[in-house]
From TrEMBL, chains A, B:
Name of the featured protein: Histidine--tRNA ligase
Organism field: Winogradskyella aurantia
CDD domains noted in UniProt: HisRS-like_core (cd00773), HisRS_anticodon (cd00859)
Gene it is expressed from: hisS
Cell location: Cytoplasm
Domain Aminoacyl-transfer RNA synthetases class-II family profile stretches: 1-400
Length: 456, 456
């Protein structure tokens, strides 16, 4: 029976070129993770539902892919629940496992489960796919990779410093020069909220402030008023609207605004420490920028907040982000474990490298030489030569059938194979190989050693 | 709320050492796949249910993990079906996606879907996890990796020859010497069935024959009789019971048994061709063995059948297998595409390498040097040195907190970090580094260049 095959929306097939390009990015990230002393772990694709549910808010719960129990799964649904025909009641009875939604919660679960085998501080990296039942959009998928590095078990700010270095190292190695690493601190935002008397409106005012670049000062103030932030509070924010300049001068302004807030002052100290260290160490190609409006992950970040923007002129959202969370593992019963981590956005980095032509050509090269098949005897001799070439690291193939010459040459052309070797009766007797360079048409007749030398 | 975290049965967490060892195997396989001209593809973790269902038999359908639809999924179940409370009726309504069960069906779907972008013969490899709701057992998991290489679009037997070389190359590179590559041919089995007049009992007699080593000739014959295979047929099998010796002499016996069967003779010719080629080319460390009782995958294999056994003395099932199938893509409407492929059993290869102590020590080395933290000023200087070491490829870490010396040394010990560097006030002033070798306790005070030279 013929079916027209498709794949589920929001998922992707990757061909050889795409796999090679993705793997170039992933291997670069991995190499730097390792250089910085991070150790790899892997967790199962699905977790018990109660490990994941309730950890990402209601919206998150909705977007988690649930796996149907096996066998006579409806037996676990009692009659009353069944008659209700309510997904809320029935889902937990017929589904006990779910696909991982991110790498952070499985990591927290891992740390708690294996706490006796782990040396703290624990620096781990994890590069695996995650799944979300999100509405698919351009650049948003239902299956995508996350590339995370985290340290848990220490509150040292040296880790924030190292994560900035890590971003710099990865993007420099990818030749993606001039990324901006934006940094903020949750404590700064809490301090501002305190100063303007809006501790309970942290989210409201940060959401409004975040729009400053887009809608301008007047409209931001309007939005704040609409959220019942007082005129007095808004006027105290005035220096924030005028906040400009380098890290140092922004810090100066913040100090004047936050002088009365203990938590605000703590946030400033942390930012100053990080900035001083980075200034001393220097960055290779990235810029560190203080961004007081940066407010991602306010539900869990308690200290530093990071976000990385592509170089100027590339229209792309953030290509990385992260921050410090003071109680990652508390949800699983292990308290007082502070952590800090960052993530690389593989799909967006891919798009940026593609747009800027930064993928090295060599990564998509595959087969270097195709041996044309003139029949069993000739092909058999070719396979001997191919075997030896492979032992020297040359990617070589035999066209499997003695098809028409034209068909075999077309195959080599379409696959972008740069060389073909022809071994006909004449070459066979003389133990020679005719090497043809596809781009120029040039042909040379060589013995095996010369062939190897030409291809290696 | 504290929860005791666990993972679903049949799944696994992998720690750094396990990830490194698995990745050593996978990277070795990948390198050889590439050398042989195979190109990587990746497919989504879940497929539309109708892509997978019905492709693996009833048992397979049962073992496929189904994903619950999102949102108000019960709306799609009409009242009659709902009142039946029958999983058979309800499952297809509430689940439209399923986790991939193997890599072969998704590959077939990929080939058909992308047939216009593919050059045939198409040599692809794919290394991704698959999921089966099997009862977990020792060495059998619900999530595990498959490592497959296949060629589709050619019937050339040179491909069978190359797959044997590929097995040999991979296991040789893994230092797993002396594996046995067993080969059989479905056509031989069909020929035998024809000769003994039991064409319709192919499975019955191969299942019985397969037990020869375990239960002996008399009991095998008994089982055949119980399956209504005639005395005359069984007597024709007599030479098979006595089948011994090398490839050549087994072929001779088969020729006498199968002289009246066209398909049997075809199978013999194929085996002879492959054996001749391999004899000419030579194998590095593996042995090729004709095994007439080998009968895996009879539902789909139409030509060669492969299975790889670990070296003598290692009690492990097959560590690889494969074969030729004449109509892989027919299920998706693209007919006449012959394919042949092999698979490597990652988990079992891991167990074999572990049992034989064949993992190179270097693969599990991680951090080479830990810088002890004596406080902010010293640590800051250390971080400069660490940054430079990393730029030279040395995996270096700073202990993030200025904890007690003993705690930091214990950390280095437990993590098996071979060197620590101490930079106290004295070293700081002299711009020097005290390098301690953990195994010997030896200490040297060095400038940076000498430190780098010692660690690189």
């Amino acid at each position: 029976m013929a079916q027209k095959p498709t794949i589920p929306k929001g998922t992707r097939d990757f061909n050889a070129e795409e796999v090679a390009k993705r793997s170039y990015i992933v291997e670069t990230i991995k190499r730097q993770f390792k250089l910085f002393g991070f150790q790899p772990i892997e967790t199962p694709s699905f977790e018990n539902s109660d490990t994941l549910m309730g950890k990402y808010g209601d919206e998150g719960d909705r977007l988690i892919f649930k796996i149907l129990n096996s066998g006579a799964y409806l037996n676990k649904v009692d009659d009353a629940d069944y008659q209700s025909k309510s997904e809320t009641l029935i889902t937990p009875k017929i589904s006990e496992k779910a696909l991982r939604y991110d790498l952070t919660v499985p990591f927290a679960r891992y740390v708690v489960q294996h706490q006796n085998d782990i040396e703290f501080p624990f620096k781990r990296y994890q590069i695996q796919p995650v799944w979300r039942a999100d509405r698919p959009q351009k650049g948003r998928f239902r299956e995508f990779y996350q590339c995370d590095a985290d340290v848990v078990g220490s509150t040292s700010l040296f880790q924030e410093v190292e994560f900035i270095q890590l971003y710099d190292a990865v993007f420099t190695e990818l030749q993606l020069k001039g990324v901006t690493i934006k940094i903020n601190n949750r404590k700064i935002l809490s301090g501002i909220a305190e100063v303007i008397g809006a501790q309970d409106k942290l989210i409201d005012f940060t959401v409004a402030l975040d729009k400053l670049d887009k809608i301008g000062e007047a409209k931001v103030k309007e939005e704040m008023r609409s959220k019942a932030i007082s005129e007095e509070g808004i006027s105290k924010l005035q220096p924030l609207f005028d906040l400009k300049g380098d890290f140092g001068s922004q810090i100066k302004t913040l100090k004047s605004i936050l002088s009365s807030s203990a938590i605000g002052i703590k946030g400033i100290e942390e930012l100053e420490f990080i900035n001083e260290m980075i200034s001393n160490l220097g960055l290779k190609t990235a810029h560190l920028e203080l961004s007081v409006t940066l407010a991602r992950g306010l539900n869990y970040y308690t200290g530093a907040i990071f976000e990385v923007a592509a170089p100027d002129g590339v229209d792309m959202g953030s290509i990385g982000g992260g921050g410090r969370y003071d109680d990652l593992t508390g949800i699983f019963g292990l308290t007082n474990v502070s952590g800090v981590g960052i993530s690389f956005g593989l799909d967006r980095i891919y798009l940026v490298l593609e747009a800027l032509g930064l993928f090295p050509e060599a990564i998509t090269e595959s087969t270097k030489v195709l041996f044309i098949n003139f029949g069993e005897t000739e092909a058999s001799a070719c396979l001997s030569a191919i075997t030896k070439l492979r032992q020297h690291g040359v990617v070589a193939e035999l066209y499997p059938d003695s098809a028409k010459m034209k068909k075999q040459m077309t195959y080599a052309n379409r696959r972008n194979i740069p060389y073909v070797v022809l071994v006909g009766e004449k070459e066979l007797q003389a133990k020679q190989f005719t090497l043809k360079t596809m781009s120029t048409g040039e042909q040379l007749t060589l013995n095996f050693d010369a062939l190897l030398a030409a291809l290696i």
